[in-house]
Description:
The protein is α+β, with helices and mostly antiparallel strands. Helices cover 25% and strands 29% of the residues. The chain has a single domain, classed as Multidrug-efflux Transporter 1 Regulator Bmrr, Chain A.
Amino acid sequence: xxxxxxxxxxxxxxxxxxxxxxxxxxxxxxxxxxxxxxxxxxxxxxxxxxxxxxxxxxxxxxxxxxxxxxxxxxxxxxxxxxxxxxxxxxxxxxxxxxxxxxxxxxxxxxxxxxxxxxxxxxxxxxxxxxxxxxxxxxxxxxxxxxxxxxxxxxxxxxxxxxxxxxxxxxxxxxxxxxxxxxxxxxxxxxxxxxxxxxxxx
Length: 201
């Protein structure tokens, strides 16, 4: 049976443009890489690429153990220092963590093996910066944004209005899940889930 994060966590990767949803997120295993700056810069592009490259090699390595996996979405955590007033246009000033969901068996040992394979075949300078980390189970609020990344603030404001009315407190960073790619669709067709971890009631 194929481990496909998009199907395994289908409920968590489904969101509406019309309402803010409360969702329970199970623990998930990720490969990650940290950075700072705007998604339009070269560092962001290269770090996105290295996660995809590492994911491809993880798939090959796990196939040797008869474990089939599919690729997850690219996701990003953005530390705005003040997440209640997140503004996508300020991303040049803030830290980010890019990540892709992986099979639970992916650990640092496997990642080290993958890095060893890739060292001779890639010139990407960020290969050795990739690490594995589990995000614990949590409760979150989320909403689907359709359109350009720079217009995402409108969706974020709706989420903030919702948590204010419902008296909910945030406990996590601004989390984006990129359901499609700016390389493949027009900017107005981009789909991004905007998510925030919240304190348990």
